[in-house]
Specification:
The complex is a heterotetramer, with two copies of chain A (220 residues) and two copies of chain C (238 residues). Chain A is an alpha/beta fold and 220 residues long. Chain A is 19% helix and 25% strand. Chain A is globular and about 50 Å long. In chain C, helix 2 (36-45) packs parallel to helix 3. With 238 residues, chain C is of the alpha/beta class. Chain C has a single domain (11-124, 153-231), classed as Glutaconate Coenzyme A-transferase. In chain C, helix 3 (63-69) links the parallel strand 2 and strand 3 (73-78). The chains are: A alpha/beta (220), C alpha/beta (238).
Amino acid sequence: MKQQTETIGWTREEMAQRLAQDIPNGSYVNLGIGIPELVARFVPEGRTFIYHTENGLLGMGPSPAEGAGDPELINAGKRHVTANLGAAYFHHADSFAMIRGGHLDLSVLGAMQIAQNGDLANWSTGKADAIPAVGGAMDLVAGVKQVFVITQHCTKAGEPKLVEACSYPLTGQGVVDRIYSDLAVIDVTPDGFRVVALCPGVDFETVQERTGAPLLPAQK
Amino acid sequence: MKQQTETIGWTREEMAQRLAQDIPNGSYVNLGIGIPELVARFVPEGRTFIYHTENGLLGMGPSPAEGAGDPELINAGKRHVTANLGAAYFHHADSFAMIRGGHLDLSVLGAMQIAQNGDLANWSTGKADAIPAVGGAMDLVAGVKQVFVITQHCTKAGEPKLVEACSYPLTGQGVVDRIYSDLAVIDVTPDGFRVVALCPGVDFETVQERTGAPLLPAQK
Amino acid sequence: MRMIDKRVPSAAEAVADIADGSSIMVGGFGEAGSPIELIHALIDQGASDLTIISNNAGSGEVGLAALFKERRVSKVICSFPKTLNSTVFPELYREGFTELELVPQGTLAERIRAGGAGVPAFYTPTAVGTPLAEGKELRVLNGREYLLEFGLRADYTLIKGLIADTHGNVLYNKTARNFAPIMATAADVTIVQAAQVAEPGAIDPETVVTPGIFVDRVVEVAKPAHESELIAAGVCYP
Amino acid sequence: MRMIDKRVPSAAEAVADIADGSSIMVGGFGEAGSPIELIHALIDQGASDLTIISNNAGSGEVGLAALFKERRVSKVICSFPKTLNSTVFPELYREGFTELELVPQGTLAERIRAGGAGVPAFYTPTAVGTPLAEGKELRVLNGREYLLEFGLRADYTLIKGLIADTHGNVLYNKTARNFAPIMATAADVTIVQAAQVAEPGAIDPETVVTPGIFVDRVVEVAKPAHESELIAAGVCYP
C-alpha cells in the first residue's frame, strides 16, 4: 500500500495548487501549519488572497530572505513572515473575533481523521502520555465560513483518514466542507462523501478502496 | 423652604471643590453631566487626576477657547473638550470595558434620589410621557470602584432627595458610596446615612429635617 | 492591476441595495462620527421600515433626525434618544410610530462587539435591579447577580472614518471613533465614508483601528458636514 | 513636577512583591512578545506555586521554560504547551508536578478579555462536541449549541512593549502584540517592560494600543533578549 501511495496521486504541491484554484479573488484565508502553508505559493493569476494569522496579523506576506527574519514578526507556526502593503496588526481577542465572528472566508487545515458527517479530528491522538495541545483549531472550525482540509488520503501506515466516524478526539462536529487529498477532491455532503474530482490516473474504485466510508460519485 | 436652601449651604462650586479634595492623586475619574463637571475645576495643588469620558477618551482636558472647538472632540455631555498629553482614544466597547471591568477609581454622578441602602435613581421620572434615556449611568454605577453623588440636598420643590427608598426607577442597587450635597457630606453605610461633615453654619438637625431617612451623626 | 478595491464612486451607490425592513447600525456619538452623507443618501434612496441601532436619535432635522422625520424608521435601539435640539424622535415615539428599545450604553457597545465576535450572549452586572432588567435572565455567578444579554447584529453598518485604504482599513478622528470600530464588525455589509481614500500602504499596520476584513465598501466624502454646523445654518434635509 | 509616574527602576523591583501562590498572565506567542527580563527577574525573586496563564509553555531553558524548570509553576492555563525545543514542560506534566488546563486559543483570549471587561461569563461555539467541552454548560441559542466560558483574571500580568510612557500607555512591535493588550486589562497589577519609556505626549493618542489605565508599573529594558537567540547561544537561565 505504501508504495502505491507514493507512485500515484497528486504531490503535496499539486494538492495545494488544486485547492488554491478554488479560492475566489479577495478571500480572507487562514492557513494551518504544514501542508496548508503550501497553498500560499499557488495564488492563481489575477487573484489576491489576504492571509490571516491568528497571532495578530492580516495581510501576511511570504517568508523573508534567510537571515532577514524578525523574531517579533511570525505566523501561527512561529515561522518568520512579512507584512504586505495594507496589512494590520491587532491583539489576540480581536484576531479570534475575526475567526469566531465568521469574518474569514476560508480555513485550510490538516487532518488526522475526517468523518462522513464532516467531523474533524486534528489535534490529539487521545493517548494517555500525549501532551495535549489544541491551539486555535477549535476556534477556526467553529467560526470560519468554509473549512477545507488538505491531507494525504491515508496515514503513513496506510489507514484511511476519511472514515465513517472519528476515533480520535474531535476538533469540531460537522465542520469540514471539502477535502483535498492526494487522490481526489471530495465534498462533505448531507449524504456523505462525494467525489468532486479525481486525480488524473486514479479511478473511483481506487479511492473508494482507500476510504473508510462510502463514496458517492461526482454529480453530472 | 426654597428660600432657606438658597441662603444656607455650600454653592455648587464649593460642593465640587469639597469633593475634589477627597480624590487621591493619580485617580482615574469619570465625571457625569451637570454639577459633576464642575469638579474638574478644583484639582487640589500637587495632584493629577486623569479624566475618562465614556465616548472614547482617557486624559480629557479642559474646554477649548470659545470657537476653537472640534466637533469630533467632545465629552459625554457632547461639549467640546481637549486632550491632555498622555491621552488615548479608543472605541466604545473598550471604553465600557474600562468602566465595567472596575478600572476607573471614581464615578461622580448627579442624582434624583438616593436611598439609605445606596440605591440610586438618576435617569428617569418614570412618567408615562417621558422619553426614556439612560446613557452610561447604569454601567458606571455597576462597574466603577467608587460612586460619589453630588447634588442639591433637596429638589427645587423642597422634597428630600435622600430617602428611605427610591420612588423613581433605579439606576443601580446599593451603588452609592458617598453624597456631597449643599448641606453636608454623607456616607452610605451598612447602618444607613452617616454625616461625615456639615457645611459651616448648618447644624445636624437642619440636615436631618431635610432628609427623608434617619441620619447618623459623624463618628468620632 | 488592483485586485482588491472596495471603493464605491458615490454615497448613493454605496447604499443603493439597502432594502425596506433592513436593520442598520449607524456610527456616531452625538454629531461626532455621524456619517451624515451616507444617511442623506439613504434618505434619497427611499428605504423604509428600518431598524436603526445607534447611540442617539439625532438632532435638528439633518442626518439621523432627518431619516426619522421622513418616517423611515420603525424601531430604534439606542441608549440616549434625547439630545439637545432633538425634537423629531420624541414626536414619533409619543405618536407610537417608532418603537424604542432602550439599552444601557455599555451594554449596547458590548452587545455589538459580541455580535461581531461570534459571541451569542454574555452576562453583565449593568442594569441589575432596574426596570431595564425586566424580562431578562438573572443569574448569580460568584455571588453577584448578572443579566444575560444577547449579541446584536445588523444587515448594514454606516460609519465615518478619517482615512481609509482600498482594502478597507480605517483610521478615525478623535472621539468620532466611538461606536464605529465595533459596528464595522457586526453587520453583513459595512459601508465607510472617509475624508480620504488611499492606496494600501498609506496606513501604518501598527495603527490600523478597523482592519479591512470588516469593511465591504468605502466611499470618499472629502469634506463631510458636521451636524451642528448644518443646524446652525438652518438646514433641514432633504 | 511629574505627579503620575509609573516607572520602576528595575525588573527586580517591578516583580518584588509577587507572592508564592500568585496567578500570573504572561504575554507572548512563542518568543514574540515574551517578557524575558521580567520572567528572569521573577526566577531570581523566588516566588513559587505559581499559576501561569500564557499561550505556550516556553522553549529551551530560558524565559518561561526556565521558570517551569525551576519548579515554580504548579498550574498552567494555556492553548499550546508543545513548542519546538519545548522539553521542560512535558517532563513536569508527565511527572504530575504541573497541572495543565488546556483552553482553545480563541476561548483563552476571549476569557482574558472578558475578565478585564467585567464580563463574568459568555457563550461560545468553540469546542462544542469535543473533549474540551466536558463539564461545561451547554446551551442552545438560536438553534445552535454553545458552551459557557468564564472570564479569567490574575493577580499579575507581565508583558513586553516597544514604547511606553510614564502614564502607562503602551505601543507594541508587530506580532509581539498578541495577548499583551488583553492581559493588561485582566490583572490586579500589570507590569510592562518596554524598550523605551518616554514622557507623556511621545505617543500619539490615536495610536495608543494599551491605555495607561490598565498599567501599574513600567520598567525600561532597552535591549530585550529574544528567546531563539538565547537558545541558539546555548543559554540556560539562571
